[in-house]
Amino acid sequence: MINPKNRVSQLDSRLLDNELFELLYQTLIDCFNVKNLPKRISDLKVKNNDELKLILKLILFKLTIYDKNSSYGLILSRLVMADADTNKNHNKLSLKKKYILLSLLVGEYLFKKLESLIYRDDFQEQDTDVTNDKISRLQKLSLKMFIGVIKFDDF
Q1: Are 5 and 81 in a shared domain?
Q2: Is residue 103 very low, low, confident or very high in pLDDT (cuts 50, 70, 90)?
Q3: Among the four residues 32, 70, 90, 134, which has the most C-beta atoms within 10 Å?
Q4: Nearest-CA neighbor of 113 among 54, 45, 29?
Q5: Which segments does the entry list as coiled coil (predicted)?
């Protein structure tokens, strides 16, 4: 049975993790707003916004979950991520589970890129009035419906 106090602590720690990420991300974006930077470098924040977020999430993942088996918020709440089988390694997360968490981070990024690619291509097709065959339209429609189902499932 789940201890309700631990569940509240887990939610609080997740909020702390999100605040930490937003604080670090805003600091990173502010670094790109320095007036002395060349235009090419300052434009990276606009062109590579998703990539900057991914890099920051990967750095936080490496420094917290991968190295310390706990996120920043969990550390402050005195909670640790651990395998269900505590007989093997107490308070230690297996390498397999760390890679699963890592794949979730990368998968979220890939999903956002795929989604933006689909909608961007659809928008460009409407602007240029290029006629497409019905099969490609059906594939895009089915992919959009699939993304909608996944978003609804997350809700």
Answers
A1: yes
A2: very high
A3: 70
A4: 54
A5: none
